Amino acid sequence: MSQKKTEFVILGQPIPCSRPRVTQRGTFYPKKYREAKEIYAGQISFHFAQHRLSPFVGPVSLHIEFVHKRPKALRGIDRVWKVTRPDLDNLVKTVKDALSAGGAWADDSQCCLLYCIDNYGEPNEEPHTRVIMSEITESPSG
After folding, report:
1. What pairs with residue 27 in β-bridges?
2. Is residue 50 part of a domain?
3. pLDDT averaged over the chain?
4. pLDDT at 2 over 80
5. C-alpha to C-alpha distance for 123 and 79, rounded to whole angstroms
6. Which residues span the domain enclosing 55?
7. What is the mean pLDDT of residues 93-117?
8. Within-domain flag for 142
9. What pTM, to 2 d.p., does this model score?
10. How far is Cα 116 from Cα 11, in angstroms, rounded to an integer?
11. Residue 103 near residue 48, CB atoms below 8 Å
12. What's the angle, vertex CA 131, arms to CA 126 and CA 136, rounded to 5?
């Protein structure tokens, strides 16, 4: 039996998950985050529909690469590690929430293995997020 796996690219500048604002009327996330999550979820659900993929069931491995717009002041021609805000964990949260909203899996608790890269793109490279999802079929090594 082959392992279920899919790869897709979410176009646009990576957006972090912001802290919610809690009031007496409920919990509210900033508009920028809500819009980004909706756009990501739309691209994810389109990918799953286009490739006739069913949602992942069971443990999932995620490989996520964030490529940010390169600052003009940054010299060189290669990709460069991004060691500034936003934090990598906040960027990951947006993608995981969008995977849930886009129907890629039932819940982000299914992510049992996570590998992430955060960098600035090459000159003239458009910002994007590359996601590789794979089902985990083997048991954890101990």
Report:
1. 22
2. yes
3. 94
4. no
5. 8
6. 5-135
7. 97
8. no
9. 0.92
10. 17
11. yes
12. 165
Two tokens at 42? Answer: 């739309």
Kindly provide the b/e burial profile for residues 56-95, where b requires at least 16 CB atoms within 10 angstroms of the residue's own CB.
beebbbbebbbbbebeeeeeeeebeebeeebebebbbbbb
Domain-embedded: residue 92:
yes
d(CA 66, CA 13): 9
SS3 117: strand
**pLDDT band with cut points at 50, 70 and 90 for residue 142:** low
What is the number of domains present in the chain?
A: 1
Report which secondary-structure segment, H or E, holds 27: strand 26-28
Helical spans, DSSP H, in the chain: 31-50, 88-101
The per-residue pLDDT for range 48-100, each reduced to its tens digit, is 999 999 999 999 999 999 999 999 888 888 999 999 999 999 999 999 999 99
141 inside domain: no
- Domain of 127, CATH number, reads 3.30.1330.70
